Amino acid sequence: MDQIFAPWRIDWVERDGDESDADGAGECPFCSLPDSEDDRESRIVARSDHAFVLLNNYPYNPGHAMVIPYRHTGSWSDLTDAELLDHAKLKTRTLDALDDALSPDAANAGENLGGGPSGGSIDDHLHTHVVPRWGGDTNFMPVVSDTKVIVEALDDTYERLHEAFAAQSGATTGGETDAVSFEDDREYDDDGPA
């Protein structure tokens, strides 16, 4: 048996198992996490008017984040123009925060759309994965042992990203357990932020 030491995962293992809605089908975590009183514990690192940034509990690389609209829908066409623009702006802020905090060489961004065949574990609440990448960030481990090594604890990544988001224009920070908030009032033109 292969073993990887990951003590930070105990919080996930010991989480409250009674997280179901009235019909017992289970509540969407992307709907319930934003209502939590502790953003840090929920791993919500930033919020805007219509979306939030959540660190992935099972990251492909350190800094693997998801930009998620508050509205529960599996279809982009259900979102308003304001929700779509806000999501795009928050994705841009996420890429900027990752650059400032982790200095990756590149990034992957994408969605799993359409349910089971797309590979997503939560297919009825759309979200964008943003994964920082470095040259050589994969090695022999995934090839010969089907094992991915994550080199930084989620709490440490959270701290670094929180600080990077907080340094951005328009950012406000609340208490120690609050995500960085944005009411995006930046003006945009054809060349980007004005």
From TrEMBL:
Q: Which domain of life is it from?
A: Archaea
Q: Which CDD domains match?
A: FHIT
Organism placement in taxonomy: Archaea, Methanobacteriati, Methanobacteriota, Stenosarchaea group, Halobacteria
* Compositionally skewed regions (Acidic residues) per UniProt: 181-194
Q: Coiled-coil annotation: which residues?
A: none
Give the protein name, as stated in the record: Diadenosine tetraphosphate (Ap4A) hydrolase
Q: Which Pfam families match?
A: HIT
Tell me the InterPro entries matching this sequence.
AP-4-A_phosphorylase (IPR052908), FHIT (IPR039383), HIT-like (IPR011146), HIT-like_sf (IPR036265)
Q: At which positions is motif Histidine triad motif?
A: 125-129
Residue ranges of domain HIT in the record: 29-140
**Positions of region (Disordered):** 106-127, 169-194
UniProt GO MF annotations: hydrolase activity; nucleotide binding
